[in-house]
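Quick one, tokens below:
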């Protein structure tokens, strides 16, 4: 096995050695925690729902709609991740907010090192992808914008990295629509830093119910929990890996699956995708088909398996991220029922 261990991401017992229901919660995700009420005359429990901001050995800090709540871990009776709330009517893949889906997607692609600044998330995985090496701008950084920018620039300078911000907005949003993006441009930042694939990325979503079911004659798709050397080798034909870092990012989510199709039962891998599994959502990453085997329905076949896995795991909604200039992939996703939920762009620090 390579990368991070899928079955033991975090400790599963509390300080007293008892099974700890909160051990498997990931910081940054939306959770519901049932808390035993110890100071009330009658025994009872209450549910705390919100984003898990901090977890220490003793306490869970949860950002709820009514503010921050600290729950002692010894009083946690049950805990589980839950999907982000609906912010408008409609099917699950459309009713989530831009920021909430950006946070879900960030849990699907976890950097090697992460730090919070208010609601912003600073991420570093040197040399490997914009998403894992940029500040995810969601909500409020908790300090004035200029101080937030200074803090982020220092954080990346300490790591010998250029500072980048990932800013999200509704489809076709412009820099002028986005106060943080606008302030960064005024600070000298450039959109995409000269890379067309970083200028505008579409976050597309679709219903898992809308994906076709595999047929008896379609090639077999293998779904594995662990990252194999062979899967990584095939994946690396489509993009340049950074040894050690790529494996860590690919295996860094709470739950992920590595999908592959072989040329024949004992042949080489000719199609891959990585699936991140969340409460209510599945995320597709790194879909790639060998150039000699394109337009033969292999990507559609992989997506059919994505649909099957999502439906089996009660995930009605699927997200993926695709550069605006990737016409082939966008055509395919649209043919499968995906639409643009929102977009993001990278703002890149000017070189000095
Ligand atoms: C995008 C990609 C995965 C598609 O794989 P594929 O196996 O060739 O796709 P499929 O044969 O399953 O195509 C399904 C449908 O998608 C659309 N499509 C796929 N490639 C297309 C292209 N080059 N131009 C236009 N439409 C295309 C078509 O609607 C197609 O159905 P059709 O062949 O019946 O017309 C493949 O081109 C690839 O690996 N590209 C490089 C990596 C990449 O961009 N991945 C996506 C990251 S988000």
């Amino acid at each position: 096995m390579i990368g991070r261990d899928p079955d033991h991401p975090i400790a599963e017992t509390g300080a007293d050695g008892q099974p700890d229901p909160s051990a498997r919660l990931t910081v940054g995700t939306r959770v519901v925690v049932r808390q035993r009420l110890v100071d009330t005359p009658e025994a009872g429990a209450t549910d705390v729902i919100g984003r898990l901001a901090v977890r220490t050995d003793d306490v869970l800090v949860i950002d709820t709609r009514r503010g921050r709540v600290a729950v002692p871990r010894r009083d946690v009776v049950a805990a589980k991740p839950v999907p982000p709330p609906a912010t408008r009517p409609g099917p699950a893949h459309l009713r989530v907010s831009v920021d909430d889906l950006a946070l879900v997607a960030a849990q699907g692609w976890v950097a090697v090192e992460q730090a919070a600044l208010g609601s912003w998330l600073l991420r570093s995985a040197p040399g490997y992808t914009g998403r894992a090496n940029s500040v995810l701008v969601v909500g409020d950084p908790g300090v004035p914008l200029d101080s937030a920018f200074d803090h982020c620039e220092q954080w990346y300078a300490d790591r010998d990295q250029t500072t980048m911000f990932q800013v999200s907005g509704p489809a076709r949003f412009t820099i002028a629509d986005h106060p943080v993006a606008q302030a960064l441009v005024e600070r000298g930042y450039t959109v995409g830093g000269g890379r067309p694939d970083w200028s505008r990325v579409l976050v597309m979503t679709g219903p898992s119910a809308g994906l076709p079911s595999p047929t008896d004659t379609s090639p077999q798709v293998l779904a594995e929990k662990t990252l194999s050397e062979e899967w990584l080798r095939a994946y690396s034909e489509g993009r340049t890996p950074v040894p050690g870092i790529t494996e860590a990012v690919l295996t860094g989510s709470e739950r992920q699956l590595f999908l592959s199709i072989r040329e024949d039962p004992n042949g080489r891998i000719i199609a891959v995708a990585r699936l991140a599994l969340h409460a209510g959502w599945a995320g597709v990453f790194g879909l790639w088909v060998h150039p000699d085997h394109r337009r033969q329905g292999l990507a559609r076949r992989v997506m059919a398996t994505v649909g099957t896995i999502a439906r089996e795991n009660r995930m009605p909604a699927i997200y993926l991220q695709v550069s605006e200039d990737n016409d082939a992939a966008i055509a395919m996703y649209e043919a499968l029922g995906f639409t643009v939920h929102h977009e993001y762009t990278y703002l890149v620090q000017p070189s000095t």
